[in-house]
TrEMBL record:
Pfam families: Lipoprotein_9. It comes from Corynebacterium spheniscorum. Keywords: Lipoprotein, Membrane, Palmitate, Signal. It is a lipid-anchor. This is D-methionine transport system substrate-binding protein. Belongs to the NlpA lipoprotein family.
Amino acid sequence: MSTKKIIAALLSTALLGGLSACSGSDSKDAEGEKIRIGSTDSSKKAWQVFQDKAKEAGLPLEVVDFSDYSTPNQALDQGQLDVNQFQHLKFLASYNSSANATLTPIGSTEIVPLALFWKDHDSLDGIEGQEVVIPNDPTNQGRAINVLVQAKLLELRTPGLVTPTPADVDTDKSKVKITPVDAAQTTAAYGEGKPAIINNSFLDRAQIDPKSAVFADDPSSTEAEPYINVFVTRAEDKDNERYKKLVEIWHDQAVQDAVAEDSRGTSVPVDRPAEDLQKILDRLEADLKK
């Protein structure tokens, strides 16, 4: 090969290499690398507004959507994500305990209350002595019992349990009886006129107005703390200012308006310091180890 052809080939290779580098640069912009954040509901309006606001603040996001609830924590733990935002503190505690992990909350978002519904009633008046139907799955049963504790309808043999079971209820001191059923059956019980605790995913299917609840858990109560939804990262990244800025952006009014629209007005914003969230998480993890 002639010297001219060799030089031409080298120049062509260099040019192709430069183009290849440019084509791979979509993971960056003028403000720096994109933040990879995991979600399970990125199609919701709040996430679209959140991405736009983050980009305006110089924090472009690469949102990775997951179809299940176990993978986002694994992906974060393994360094495939920078942050995730899909879970409450109780779920995070369960993951950390089972995986021997140290994933860390850096900010809160909201609580979606679990509520008590009673057809053709707008208050708790007359509920004493009634049979209240609650979901029997591990995620909701303990929380449902605590909703009734907060409503002063149930008393526990040992106050302050994070995840009480029906066996923990002091029936002699309680004002109602509870009947655990499959969560999907709570709406049927409601339709029959029984008071029922129904989670949000079944309200829509049964066309029950979430604002018709006669009682919901108080987001500022100790019993509700495990269900605060959070931004999470690895322990070594908990002080990363870019990630912490995402928490501030989530509480931008435009994002909050979209969250309210997505949840039909049922979500309650929660803005708790990371230190408080870590204390709650530590308590939950300690309870799981007992």
